[in-house]
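Long-time lurker. I teach an intro course on protein structure, and each term I like to show students one example going from raw sequence to a predicted 3D structure in token notation. This year I'd like something fresh instead of my usual example. Would anyone be willing to generate the tokens for the chain below so I can use it in lecture? Attribution to the forum is fine with me.
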Amino acid sequence: MTSDVKVELIEIGHQMNQAGLSKPFIAAAVETAFEFEGVYDLMKLWVEEKVPAEKDEIVADIQDLINDCTQKEKVEGVYVRFDDLARIAKNIRGFKDSLRIKVDDLGGVGELSKKTGIPQPSLSRFFNSASIPHRATLLKIAKALGLSQVEIATEWSR
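-- Reply from a regular --
Happy to contribute to a lecture. Here you go:
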């Protein structure tokens, strides 16, 4: 990566800071973008985007890529039968709904974002989807909510 690209990433990080994104998120984005071009590309898209909802989606995508790129241990996927997908999705949805109740008791997604450093758009996507959660996200949420890893661990986190 050239010095010009590194400086450009730092400048984008500064713009993200001015937009109110959390410093831990910005630092992780810039550090990850130094190594992974996909994060760099998303950060450039974020700067160019004018629609706030689209910018939020890009932030959520950046967080997903940060999680994927920085995962220390790569775990082989578990074979899931197609017939089991509806049951798994229902379990994930139920898990996230019960977790959301605890988040709302804490003060809501905005407060959770402050405590975890996870951007609010990423947390909103997390709670509004039935996708399999990232282990790193779950552990940050658990810590913010005062839950043990055992209470938050699931068989289908990745």
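Some talking points for your students: DSSP finds nine helices and no strands in the chain. The chain has two domains: 3-70, 82-152.
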